[in-house]
């Protein structure tokens, strides 16, 4: 079955790979990814929350700490 399909050109594969790499390295993707990780960590630490307000504070704490680590690493690695 593999012999029935023509393989894509190397240049096409390289351009597709570059598009994927640019998307994964973008700042917006990282912020959305941090949003999901913060939500996941907040859900897993549910026994530590005593109220909904505390859960929201913990969520924003995770999110802001993740953003600050991301911005710090991005600034350090650009130099």
Automatic annotation (TrEMBL):
Q: Which residues cross the membrane?
A: 28-46, 52-73
Sorted keywords for this record are:
Membrane, Transmembrane, Transmembrane helix
Indicate whether Transmembrane helix appears among the record's keywords: yes
Task: Name it.
Answer: Uncharacterized protein
Q: Please name the taxonomic classification of the source.
A: Bacteria, Bacillati, Bacillota, Bacilli, Bacillales
């Amino acid at each position: 079955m593999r012999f029935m399909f023509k393989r894509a050109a190397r240049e096409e594969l390289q351009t597709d790979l570059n598009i994927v790499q640019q998307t994964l390295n973008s700042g917006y993707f990282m912020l959305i990814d941090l949003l999901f990780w913060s939500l996941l960590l907040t859900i897993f630490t549910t026994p530590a929350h005593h109220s909904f307000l505390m859960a929201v504070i913990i969520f924003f704490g995770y999110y802001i700490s993740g953003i600050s680590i991301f911005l710090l690493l991005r600034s350090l690695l650009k130099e």
